[in-house]
Amino acid sequence: MIIRILLLLGLGAIGFFIFLRRNRLPIHIMTVFLLIAVGAVAVIFPDITQDAANVVGVGRGADLVMYIAIVAVMFVLLHYYTKFVELQRQVTELTRELAILRAEVERVAPPAPGNERAS
Amino acid sequence: MPDRSETWVVIAAFNEGKVIHDVVAEVVAAGWPVALVDDGSRDNTAEAARMPGVSVLRHRVNLGQGAALQTGIDYALRRGARSIVTFDADGQHNCEDIPALVDALADADVALGSRFLGKQVEGASQRRVAMLKTATAVSNSLSGMKLTDAHCGMRAFRASAAPALRITQDRMAHASELLRKIKTSGLRVVEVPVTVRYTEHSMSKGQGGIQAVRILFDYFFRT
To answer: Which residues are B193's β-sheet partners?
Structure first.
């Protein structure tokens, strides 16, 4: 079926991309490849998701996959949101330190008139 | 008269090139040392404010009023300030109100300027006054304090209170953050009447209804 080929190609592309950027710890790579493998199995043998859905009490396998995917995406969003807030805090800290340092430097050695750094 | 050189006036300015020179000159003429924080302005704010008696600090990128004020406060403390006054850059505050704020620190840790305590609000529309009153009510219910005006930019506090009042809200939610920190740290606070001049310029820089939503979002979700 065409959809299986498309999904497998997508998973393969993600795996290739991760492989190219393999500067992380081996455990990260392994986790990603494991997830991709689970995805690939689910694509090739969809009945497995149906069996899993029956076990946990969801009607269809596709529904189970979607529920898991939604929770996973929300988790990723939260992760990046915390990262973003932390990054902003760091930018604030650095910008503040720079401003204070430059003011201190200018106090000791005032900039020549007309030679101020434009921003 | 106490030595004015120990009280630093911190002014956070963003794109205030048109008015900042006069605002700063007035404060300097009154004898207060000024820490002017140019919060990544795209105009000539920093150059216009540069004059003897003023320390100009520049944020390379725009961070927001809360962050800019804290930068100025950090710098003033580094220069040995005994007390800090925050002052708006748009010309809405009157520097003749500063001595009353500083005097109030004799038996308080924090002195908050209030637009609604006796003195008049010049040039504010009814709609604006209503909005400010609403903001005050919301802020009072958040902080658990009973103030007549919660979001006046003119305040004074002792250097010893500065660590407890450290601003982590980079943008406008710092005003509510400050009140929360006053409350939780048990600092002594008084309100001092101040005059506010609403000009066409300061009105254009004011906070509208949409921004209020963002401030509340910051207050609750960004700590």
So the answer is: B114
CB B35, CB B69: distance < 8 Å: no
| ipTM metric | 0.83
Is pTM beyond 0.90? Reply is no
Which residues numbered 120-179 in B keep a CB inside 8 Å of some CB on A?
168, 170
Q: Where are the alpha helices (DSSP H) in chain B?
A: 20-29, 45-49, 65-78, 98-104, 126-143, 174-185, 200-204, 209-221
Q: Which residues contact B192 (CB under 8 A, 6 or more apart)?
A: B97, B100, B101, B104, B111, B112, B113, B114, B117
The region of weakest confidence among A30-44, B91-105, B124-138 is B124-138
pLDDT in tens, B38-83: 999 999 999 999 999 999 999 999 999 999 999 999 999 999 999 9
Residues of chain A with Cβ-Cβ distance to B60 below 8 Å are 95, 98-99, 119
Any alpha helices (H) in chain A, and if so which ranges?
2-20, 26-44, 47-56, 61-108
